[in-house]
Amino acid sequence: MSKGQQVRKTIQHISNFKKSASSADVYQNVVNHPWAQPLVKALNLPVPLPLKRQQQASEEFLRGKALFGSASTGNKEASPVANAILTTLSHGSAKLFYLKENDSQQDLLSASKTHPLRILTDASQKLSALIYDATSVANPEELTAVYDFYHNNIRRLGDHSRIVVVGLTPSSCKEAAQASAMYALEGFIRSTAKEIGGKAATANLIQLETGAEHLLESPLRYLLSQRAAFITGQAVTLSKVSGSNEKINWRQPLMDKTALVTGASRGIGKAIAETLARDGAKVILLDIEPCKEDLESLARRLGGHAVIADVSDKKGLNKLIKDVQKGSETIDILVNNAGITRDKTLARMDIKRWQSVLDINLSAVQRITEALVDKKVLKVNGRVICISSINGIAGCFGQTNYSTSKAGVIGYVEAMDKVLARRKITINAIAPGFIETQMTQAIPFLSREIGRRINSLSQGGQPEDVAEAVAMFANPASAGLRANTLRVCGQNLVGA
């Protein structure tokens, strides 16, 4: 078949794809199809590897073979952080390995007595994860240990694999040299994520305060799992707080919890409600009157409670809360998801467009959160998760109102953290990038394709990617995750 015939055949298949699924990632479907491989090879086209996402709640968070390393060599015992990491890894089904490079690694040898660690001897083995404890790195010179571990092993990574580095928060370091080394890990992980993105692999950093290692399990499980398939190049901070004695059922960690999700009838809100219900939560779903039919249908399917309310109605706030309490007197989780866009360039934007977006996307978040806290509807040890946007970080042409509101959400989360911490309530934000929703379906084809490709994974995310991040923050084991803004964007080049 000539190259011209191949091109014509490809165009026909693309046309068929567009007719059959207008919301599909047409390019990704085409270049991964067997009949397109000769053309892909001839034109040297990039081939985004489809992500593997969590299919069932019972799936293991880590499979295959995982290699663990630590900078804390020469100690008689494994460091508290290394032990916390190994304890978490031992709960997965992956086979755990370490490299015996010299006899000074007594910390790992000691740890291997209590954790199922093996020495990795076969250089040809493909690995599903590379996990490194860098918390003992004391200065920039010692970052060579991080380089050595990943330089020598990164070629062993298979498709859909995971890299996680654990370091300290720079603010918790006593010496400037160590703080600079810990901050340097952010640059390391962001660059590494871009290098392995073609394998649908991810690289992320957990920065913890000294003494917070007992809270590592929740973010570590998440970042190593398929639930975090669209999270890469990100740093998550873990604060030192008193640990919860609550025993976690990791298959249904939200059992006996109640969650309120605003803007829940469709898209990301719907996916959040479904995911929280999957994890055991009773869900209260809130949306506006035009969405009543979809909202009530979803509530019936999930065994939840539907509330019809407008979050921008200041006078109706008390009624909103009373309607919520018809579903449950108190709640454990609040997800501020409701939001709108009213796009125009600033010169053409009328005051109504400005005010409506700021009111629903930002002011309503403040009103509802603080009312639920003040009236003690949101319990002690509760969780607040606010949906921001990558455009709140980077800005966007024609979206000064939307970008302003979403940046304000991030600021609100950071400001409210200390206030809510008094009641042991955590608050975090999620900033989605290009997510395949009805809103992105309306974007012109070429712009939509560009939006999908400008991230390290070269594809758009799904609503469930945002929902899985919400579920991680909502987990009772996530008490140390405070005032984070997690970018669910595949390491989008815009604001990454």
TrEMBL record:
It comes from the Bacteria. InterPro entries: KR_dom (IPR057326), NAD(P)-bd_dom_sf (IPR036291), SDR (IPR050259), SDR_fam (IPR002347). Transmembrane segments: none annotated. Residues 257-438 form the Ketoreductase domain. Pfam families: adh_short. Belongs to the short-chain dehydrogenases/reductases (SDR) family. This is 3-oxoacyl-ACP reductase. It comes from Litoribacillus peritrichatus.
